[in-house]
Design brief:
With about 350 residues, this protein is α/β, with parallel strands linked by helices. It has 2 domains: about 190 residues, Rossmann fold (3-Layer(aba) Sandwich), CATH 3.40.50; about 130 residues, Rossmann fold. It has 12 helices and 8 strands. The protein has a 4-stranded parallel beta sheet, with helices on both faces. The N terminus is likely disordered.
């Protein structure tokens, strides 16, 4: 390269930087039917989420689901909405995770930290482009899903590489692996759960460990998600001994196909019917509290438990952007940045 060409390149790009992009699932931009409709359309049109995107599904999606479901789900979002910031708690927490990570690794002044949602805003495209515009020629993508699934972690990669496909000059990409069995993650979960249980006015007889559900057929095709959920629960059980017994369940099923079992709502109801009066529910598959934890678990399942005879119910918060949660993200990111910083 000639000196003139080198000078031109330097002037255009400036000092090379390293980008870190934290990615979570997504959320509507507004807690109304239109906002939820836009979000659901993007989410349910992803072939990683609904694998059969044929004509029948498109008719069901556009003719039924997007006509009826948004108004109902909007009411659920309104129950948990951060009205002060006019955004979902997931956005508030994700921003906090990004800001706190940036502060925690501030001594690496050539590292730029940002955050995105796989569905909704800020989009992966917008944040990858923003990092590139800040001279990041290397980007670490961090899907904030402890357990890998094609419907979560893999679709983040799909979208990142779709963005790169339109770039002539691409940044180098790394993707952090799932961390379902990492000691620093298990330790953080255990310490967080113990700390929350210590604040309760009761001692739970059972701890329900609830993960997001998935169609059974996805597992049958080879998705490792269920196996990783089992490993996380087993390691958590070891750390919490001699705490109350732990029950692994799956929540948030959709449609009529068989999903991973046992189902959280049915388990909660059965526990109450069987005479269990005090339970706590933890959700270690979520890195941040969202609709599925704040509304489905803390409100819907609490009501199910009490309706069937249960008395005291506690939903343990996710790791979020608290000290334990941020330590997990920091350790993961610094490990995966080795050789770049």
């Amino acid at each position: 390269m000639t000196d003139a060409a080198s000078d031109t390149l330097s002037a255009r790009t400036g000092p090379a930087r390293v980008g870190v992009l934290l990615v979570n699932l997504g959320t509507p931009d507004s807690a109304d039917a239109n906002g939820v409709r836009v979000y659901l359309k993007e989410f349910l049109s992803d072939p990683r989420v609904i694998e059969n995107q044929g004509l029948f599904w498109k008719l069901v999606l556009n003719g039924i689901i997007l006509r009826t479901r948004p108004a109902r789900k909007a009411k659920d979002y309104q129950k948990i909405w951060n009205n002060a910031a006019n955004e979902s708690p997931l956005k508030t927490i994700s921003r906090g995770q990004s800001d706190k990570l940036a502060a925690a690794i501030a001594d690496h002044d050539h590292v730029v930290v940002d955050w995105a949602m796989r569905y909704g805003n800020p989009s992966i495209r917008s944040r990858v482009e923003a990092l590139v515009a800040q001279n990041c020629d290397r980007i670490l993508v961090v899907p904030l899903y402890p357990q890998y699934s094609a419907a979560t972690s893999a679709t983040v990669c799909d979208e990142v590489f779709r963005v790169l496909a339109g770039m002539r000059s691409q940044p180098t990409i790394r993707v952090s692996p799932p961390y379902f069995d990492e000691p620093f993650y298990i330790d953080a979960l255990a310490s967080s759960i113990k700390a929350h249980l210590a604040t309760l006015p009761f001692e739970p007889e059972v701890i329900v460990v609830s993960f997001h559900g998935m169609p059974q057929k996805y597992i049958d095709k080879g998705d490792p998600y269920q196996a990783q959920c089992v490993v996380t629960t087993d390691k958590l059980r070891e750390q919490l001994e001699p705490e109350p017994s732990l029950l692994l369940t799956f929540q948030s099923r959709f449609g009529f196909a068989q999903w991973l079992q046992p189902y959280t709502d049915k388990t909660v109801a059965k526990l109450a019917k069987d005479g269990v009066r005090r339970i706590a529910v933890v959700t270690p598959g979520f890195s941040a509290d969202c609709l599925e934890t704040l509304e489905e678990i803390a409100q819907e399942n609490a009501e199910i438990f009490r309706h069937n005879g249960g008395e005291q119910f506690a939903a343990v918060p996710c790791l979020n952007d608290g000290d334990a949660g941020m330590d997990v993200i920091r350790q993961l990111v610094l490990r995966e940045l080795q050789g770049w910083i």
